[in-house]
Amino acid sequence: MNRHLPNWSLLPNSPLEFFGLSAGFDRKDLKRAYGKLIKQFKPESHPAEFQKIREAYEVLESQNRYGVQQALMTQLSSAWNITTDRSASQAARTSQQFVAAEVVNDFDAAIADPLATYRRLAKSSNRSPQDFYILATLSDLVDSNSENMYVKWLLTGVKEHPRDPGLLRLLTEYLSAFAESTIACSTLLTLSKLIEGTDFYRVTERLWGRLLDELPFGTFSKALDGCEGNLKSRNLRPRLAFYTHLLRKAIWKAPAEWIDVRLKYIEQHGSEIDASLDEEVELVNLLRNYYHEDRNKLLTKPLGSSIDRMIKAYCCDTSLQGMGEIAGICDEMARNGNGVMQTFAVSGDESGNRVLFLCSIIAQSVAVDTGLDFGTAGNDKVERQADAVVADFQKSIQDVASRLNWMRLRHFGVPFLLLWLGPLILLFGWQYWWMLFFIWTLLVVLLHFAVVCPLYLNKRADEKTRRFLELEYAKQWRPRLYRYVQASHLPARQSITQLMQSAKDLGQSRLVEIILSYAFEDRSLHLFSQLQLFVH
Q1: Residue 426: what pLDDT?
Q2: Quick one: DSSP state of residue 11?
Q3: How far is CA 500 from its chain centroid?
């Protein structure tokens, strides 16, 4: 099938145009455009193309999450081209992309005589953002005796042009990939005095994530507090976006008190949170509860350690390798239906339901990020599978229905007999025994069905019936549904709907509805269906 090929020349400088988005796009528009491309360029078959698409997506996703003005985002896509390669030879290859004639001349001069160009621009009193880029690039070649001149020129450029999108992007990429943790804290403190908080969090987000891994938490926290003390902006949204993203990783390293303070801050400023951050906040709260309340309990379950590794990888490793690890764990779980059933009960407690919800979020997110989707199975095949399941259920349902009727008969009959026969024994032998027998029987019938059943027996019977059917579902019907979902390779809801249709066609709808009412509520069955996407 022929597919439209993307314009790779638009990357990395015009991600907005690359995805075919307008300046007013929202997160759903970006996800939709990204998903179409990823289905065409999957990581296992097109790793290089996937990486380019992923990097462009992350740029736009970050800007959208931080509420960057759409006008600035459009300006960024047409800003002067930059590169993170700190070498003059790379500058030579990209110099032809610069539009302004004086910029091209400066790059030509830098290639022809790097030292003279460096000295001339260093003495200039009116330097453009592009000049600072050239100075930073040449500093590694001609001024190697001066320490960290690359960073100093970048910071000086940002100081003179604090809102220039090209310099901010170059600084973001440098901090993300090259900044050493030994000097990062001082660099961040300097930067927090040069640019507004609106840009500070977005530009430094990835570096803070790396420092959280590399530095003792006390050092990390002190540096972050120092930077926030320097920020002057009153715009709360960037800080909220920063913390909702950082807390994913911090939960695994930071003290619980530190996490709770940040979560409380987010809750106190909930009015600043829009739809693009709602899901992030919900995820962070789930992760907090998981790490401090649910994790120890989960680790005692058959698949507990695998699920824990999956959750941690999702929070701490956003690279392609991290997604590959998650996909491998999902594949392992998708082939182990018994393990999933033993890990998650049919009617789980609050802790188990939270973990299930968290697993579903991760599986769905990674499936989208890697272009995985359910295929379209042939209708005939799915119908045959559903018919076979309904046929398998018929005998077991009839047996269960018989036992259930006997259980309910005992439940209602024994109390009635005790209430009826007990006093009759005492009345036996009285002169008017038969009359008393008739009156007492009438009273007992009225008392039993008008008072005892509505107030006590009906509720108890419904609860016992629910527990009985839940046990039978877990023992007899759940394993069969797991095998059916695994074979159909369709979303669980769609598979169950097909079962309903087959039961109706075979005249068994009343019986099968009992089972499927539990299947619809069985969250682990839906998770197991999601996991089938990762089976290779």
Answers
A1: 59
A2: T
A3: 31
